[in-house]
User: Fold these one by one.
Assistant:
Number 1:
Amino acid sequence: QAVVTQEPSLTVSPGGTVTLTCGSSTGPVTSGQYPYWIQQRPGQAPRTLIYDTNNKHSWTPARFSGSLLGGKAALTLSGAQPEDEAEYYCLFSYSGDWVFGGGTKLTVL
Amino acid sequence: QVQLVESGGGVVQPGRSLRLSCAASGFTFSYYTMHWVRQAPGKGLEWVAIISFDGSKKYYADSVKGRFTISRDNSQNTLYLQMNSLRAEDTAVYYCARVDIAWGQGTLVTVSS
């Protein structure tokens, strides 16, 4: 099965901007892999922030956005808040199989 | 609202079996693909299995292929995961998910003698 690669950790200042990325071992990430971005705060269940590359839910703060950037899936956080400190996972579809990235631990400091 | 509630976790000896259930509500269950995802203690999320809306297509992670079976009962709005030949490395919190919109709270499976 494919391997999905994320930055292990990133730090952003309160109010700052940061971009998390996910690459695929099979080549450039495409919209056909339906990239998802999932947030997991410590001790909590996961929740989906972004689906199908760039679609948001009603609970997704406007400061989060999804895109494809340089052959990778990207999650951009503009105006970081303390409550955004969490683990972020991407999830890709590979024609039946699905694969998570290893997760990015985002620190707001 | 969309709700997913897992049950069936517990402590089981290596080599034994366990069946997890996930009760779905708040949406038309029979319309949607469903997933099982697990998370070992202190580790990241690992995709386990997926089942199509009608149960006709199923896919599994290599780590569970041949041992786990995903199924669903659309008349009961329930998703299942039958886990056989359990190993210590299957110890994890197991989540059912409609990954586009909702996750359950998870059920802990501990495989230990």
Number 2:
Amino acid sequence: SQTIHQWPATLVQPVGSPLSLECTVEGTSNPNLYWYRQAAGRGLQLLFYSVGIGQISSEVPQNLSASRPQDRQFILSSKKLLLSDSGFYLCAWSVRQDNSPLHFGNGTRLTVT
Amino acid sequence: DQQVKQNSPSLSVQEGRISILNCDYTNSMFDYFLWYKKYPAEGPTFLISISSIKDKNEDGRFTVFLNKSAKHLSLHIVPSQPGDSAVYFCAASADQDTGRRALTFGSGTRLQVQP
């Protein structure tokens, strides 16, 4: 069966510090990968998606970047965090076929102080 | 521009009764709709989905109804149980040439099932 791992679960970082969140998927090949963010009291916003190694698409302009160095690894990064980067970050995967759901990791709670 | 809207931020229902969660969308290109359940500090869990060629899909206690002309879908939970208490997100996607299939989410409805 497929599993998705996301770490760390919680993170407190000062403004201006770098960020690296990692996500790996097991039990499937060539997945679509996604990073979402849930700000306090709001829905889930798509940040990045990837349909293959090295292929990253950004949905919204922001202070973050994403990379996919391996087929089942997806990394969310920032060189300098802003207060507004605080939120709940979720990695997700899906198979590459129509009408298939996204499956989410347990998320990372990021607090920028 | 919110393409998927859940206008009720919260809903309280008695155990054993029906819970009805509503969702409206504006993008006529959406052709696949899903409901997710989310507990605090966890990722959303997929519940049930429906494609635009259907108007109803049922899975145990959960039924999703789609009204394409009204651009409206709803999730019915019968009977409701205390363990159903969570935030429910409606989501939708449109067929994309790149196989992107990313989901657009509503803002969620917090369901509280009272024992």
Number 3:
Amino acid sequence: AQSVTQLDSHVSVSEGTPVLLRCNYSSSYSPSLFWYVQHPNKGLQLLLKYTSAATLVKGINGFEAEFKKSETSFHLTKPSAHMSDAAEYFCVVSGAGGATNKLIFGTGTLLAVQP
Amino acid sequence: NAGVTQTPKFRILKIGQSMTLQCAQDMNHNYMYWYRQDPGMGLKLIYYSVGAGITDKGEVPNGYNVSRSTTEDFPLRLELAAPSQTSVYFCASSLPGSDGYTFGSGTRLTVV
């Protein structure tokens, strides 16, 4: 069965410093992995996705993530945080192979950006 | 380009009342999903549908029902509201083989 574990429920950084949000996954299949962002009282927006192409995936707003099979990790990074990055971030794995596209969500990491 | 539209945005129900959360998409997506989001729990799949006339249970289906009479619409029904159903509900859609979902903006439901 697929699952994801987000290692930090809260992360706080200063504006202009690097962001690291950690995610480990478990999958019986070659996984598809995603990061979604949710700003307060908003829906979810896709940041980036890994689907077995390049292991370093670039997303929107300067975020990127690296798929490391040996470490079963898919950490999200950004070189320099901006105030507008404050939001909740979800690491997501695509469910078991088949036609249903079911997504399995981690419990989320709340990112705070201090001025 | 409406995408996925959910109504209502907010609702307060009394215990035992029923209601239907509406979800409509205009992207001709075959697959549609209902998730609930509770603090610290991420999103949990309630029901999903791979096409008109086809629905299936997700991880937390108890207390809910769905129907899919058209490609566009995927309503979620609560028959006897309970406080445990207080949550934020998200509808989403996707194409077959596509790994990206389009999410609606959510419905915040409180059962008192």
